[in-house]
Specification:
By secondary structure, the chain is an alpha+beta fold. Helix content is 28%, strand content 14%. α5 (105-118) crosses α7 (168-179). 30% of the residues are buried.
């Protein structure tokens, strides 16, 4: 976890070779009001969340600094990783309050189909619980490809598909479909609990 995000991309880019991939994922500050109003069923608390730049992380029991993708997106440019593509991660899953339902295999399968379909659509990436910025080190001509809507993350031979259990596999599916297009990337996505 990084408290001062502007310092983080420089440290991440330093070991990258030409063509290496920079991927930044973070909790989306824009999603905080939705979490309060929709997931928390507390619309009265949502206005206070509009400008909040901190959140309590339940997974690690600590306070996190929140940034928007807009605040971070220009940083890789100045570090030789131009034209970062932006994706929304867990655009729907984290806004569903019924966590038990997410463990139902049919319901979860529907979520796994829906999340990749909306990951690069502007309306959804602005309100997704997490955002991902991805770019290659080098020239703008070698920026990473955008994932196709509806792709499941299967790279043909089965490589690139990340299987986990529970709601975190929605994140893994979206990440793996992007990694499947980049054969040089080590495809390792660790499941994590929802950040609320």
């Amino acid at each position: 976890m990084v408290d001062h995000a502007p310092a983080m991309p420089a440290a991440a880019v330093a070991p990258l070779r030409e063509g290496g991939v920079l991927s930044v994922m973070a909790v989306n500050r824009h999603s905080a009001p939705l979490v309060a109003a929709v997931r928390g069923l507390g619309p009265a608390a949502a206005p206070a969340a509009l400008d909040r730049d901190r959140a309590d992380g339940r997974t690690f029991g600590t306070t996190m600094a929140l940034y928007t993708a807009e605040e971070i997106a220009s940083l890789p440019d100045g570090l030789g990783c131009p034209r970062a593509d932006r994706y929304g991660i867990r655009s729907v899953c984290d806004h569903i309050a019924d966590d038990e339902r997410k463990h139902d295999p049919a319901f979860h399968a529907d979520l796994e189909r829906l999340e990749p379909a909306v990951t690069d659509r502007p309306a959804h990436r602005h309100t997704a619980r997490l955002y991902q910025l991805a770019a290659r080190r080098g020239t703008a001509a070698c920026a990473p490809p955008r994932p196709r809507r509806g792709v499941t993350g299967d790279a043909g031979s089965g490589q690139g598909r990340v299987r986990t259990r529970g709601p975190s596999s929605v994140t893994a599916t979206v990440c793996s479909m992007w990694a499947a297009r980049l054969p040089s990337v080590v495809r390792s996505v660790q499941p994590s609990a929802s950040v609320r």
